[in-house]
Amino acid sequence: MSKQHVLITGASSGIGAVYADRFAKRGADLTLVARDRTRLTALATRLEKETGVSVDVVPADLTNPADLAAIETRLASDSSIEILINNAGIALPGSFLDQSPDDVSRLIAINVTAPARLANVAAKRLAQLGRGAIVNVASILALTPELGFEAYGGTKAFVLRLSQALNLLLAPKGVYVQAVLPAATRTEIWERIGVDVNQIQGVMAVDELVDAALVGFDRREAVTIPPLPDETQWLAAEAARQAMIPNFRQEHAAARYRA
């Protein structure tokens, strides 16, 4: 088997940086993508020194169409890259009523457009190759509108739905797709939206989150929810959803909607 090569977005800090550390310790070469060249370079230097793997640094702003296109080209042309970690993401301060249309567009650009485009490019090449993996970092907010974060949760619901459909499409072709759903995790995202993370209950350490996600990765779980104690709750929810599918194919509206 060829040596693993992993491309990770949002790799300069938080979840992405820990993914980089863990895959480097597994012996994988890395391509690290983020806006902060200085932090990326420092991380790459440390990982190369500690593990001996090769680490390529690609500074890029995934809201910039030219930068995003460059990463797409890298994914399409570098045949050694067999794992994509779609981790880059942002949140916004306040509620949907406080956010401007431009804020929401920027959120969608990095949380929806970028991972969808990168997954599209990676999926096509990996399907032809017959192996590889795509990991999309979503959020438990994809399942919990009651917790607020209206637009952010909506973007993560897209990531979850895309991941589940891609796993069904690509698994027969030898490509594994995983959605990871963290709850509150101790990363810089909270400071960036003006929230004191120390005032939030049940915040998971980022190392623990990624290590749990990698257990799910090794088990080839389609959806990994590290904070959920009882897996049967998720399995029951999925079973209930799937039970509705045959009932969606109806020529007429349900009787409850007809006078």
Describe this structure in words.
With 259 residues, this protein is of the alpha/beta class. The chain has one domain: Rossmann fold, CATH 3.40.50.720. 47% of the residues lie in helices and 12% in strands. It has eight helices and seven strands, in the order E-H-E-H-E-H-E-H-E-H-E-H-H-E-H. It has a seven-stranded parallel beta sheet with strand order 3-2-1-4-5-6-7, with helices on both faces. Helix 1 (14-25) links the parallel strand 1 (5-9) and strand 2. Helix 1 crosses helix 7 (206-219), helix 3 runs parallel beside helix 4 and helix 4 (101-129) runs parallel beside helix 5 (150-170). The radius of gyration is 19 Å and the shape is globular.
Main traits of this protein?
259 residues, Rossmann fold, globular
Percent strand equals 5-15%
**Mind telling me the CATH class?**
Alpha Beta
**Shape assignment:** globular
Strand order in the largest sheet: 3-2-1-4-5-6-7
Largest sheet: 7 strands, parallel
User: How many domains, as an integer?
Assistant: 1
Listing every helix as H and every strand as E from the N terminus to the C terminus, the arrangement reads: EHEHEHEHEHEHHEH
CATH superfamily: NAD(P)-binding Rossmann-like Domain
Percent in helix: 40-55%
Count of extended strands: 7
Radius of gyration using CA atoms only? 19 Å
Report the total helices.
Answer: 8
Mean pLDDT across all amino acids: 94
Structural class: alpha/beta
Through-space gap between termini: 64 Å
